[in-house]
């Protein structure tokens, strides 16, 4: 097993599949009356969040607690710790506390990689800037596999603000390793030139959502990340929704079996309408539940739970 999980590219097909299979076993724990395993008793997991988070943070906390680890939550919001030097000082503090795993979310792309140089424990990237979010890609892959029965050969459309999306990057890397075919869809201003080829050969790009819908098994809608936009990338929210938003009539163009995903948080009415988000094709709530099982599997495997 790998020591850190920093990128979707850290996972080969065997390792990724091992994580997904382990997550399936972890999911069984969630159905029990006592949702706890003793696997990580006496180990310390630190959640180091320098950026806002609801789902990711809560689910890492729940995952560590269900494995009986001691959990320390560190929130840097509002302090001046976002500079490289301070991150190093924080790392040394975590080191002194004997953290076995550090789960880090940081606005700077690459911060978790730096952290991994400074601590002895495992580092898990819970989202770094616009770069990567590998556990989100794993929970997305888990959700697709459990709904559609396989990953190899699936056609996955990743739609919207690809430019700012760490979710998109990690998904392209992981899904192509697992044999799915990804097409990035959005306005040209939000799809970086050459991104498809740079991440994984075989990744497609299309600027017209209606063209890709009839042949998609999965449509993954991305949030328009206005907080990361200093420019106007499209004329108006209405115009964006008209061309790239998923609404009822568009959803009807999908094959019968196709599912609709979104990592959350959603801009309801912009990239997705409430009708679609709350429909039976939507896996949005399932993705959150699966996130706990997948993060349990990641912590368990990284911390050597399988060797104990
Ligand atoms: C995403 C993130 O923070 O990268 N959310 C998540 O982790 N569920 C996507 C987003 O913020 O749009």
From TrEMBL:
The gene is pyrB. Pfam families: OTCace (PF00185), OTCace_N (PF02729). Catalyzes the condensation of carbamoyl phosphate and aspartate to form carbamoyl aspartate and inorganic phosphate, the committed step in the de novo pyrimidine nucleotide biosynthesis pathway. Pathway: Pyrimidine metabolism; UMP biosynthesis via de novo pathway; (S)-dihydroorotate from bicarbonate: step 2/3. It comes from Micromonospora lutea. Residues 153-302 form the Aspartate/ornithine carbamoyltransferase Asp/Orn-binding domain. Its EC number is 2.1.3.2. It catalyses: carbamoyl phosphate + L-aspartate = N-carbamoyl-L-aspartate + phosphate + H(+). This is Aspartate carbamoyltransferase. It is an enzyme of class 2 (transferase). Residues 3-145 form the Aspartate/ornithine carbamoyltransferase carbamoyl-P binding domain. InterPro entries: Asp/Orn_carbamoyltranf_P-bd, Asp/Orn_carbamoylTrfase, Asp/Orn_carbamoylTrfase_sf, Asp_carbamoyltransf, Asp_carbamoyltransf_Asp/Orn-bd. Keywords: Pyrimidine biosynthesis, Transferase. Carbamoyl phosphate binds at residues 55-56, 105, 133, 136, 264-265. Belongs to the aspartate/ornithine carbamoyltransferase superfamily. ATCase family. L-aspartate binds at residues 83, 166, 223. PANTHER family: ASPARTATE CARBAMOYLTRANSFERASE, ORNITHINE CARBAMOYLTRANSFERASE, MITOCHONDRIAL. The keyword Transferase applies. Heterododecamer (2C3:3R2) of six catalytic PyrB chains organized as two trimers (C3), and six regulatory PyrI chains organized as three dimers (R2). The keyword DNA-binding does not apply.
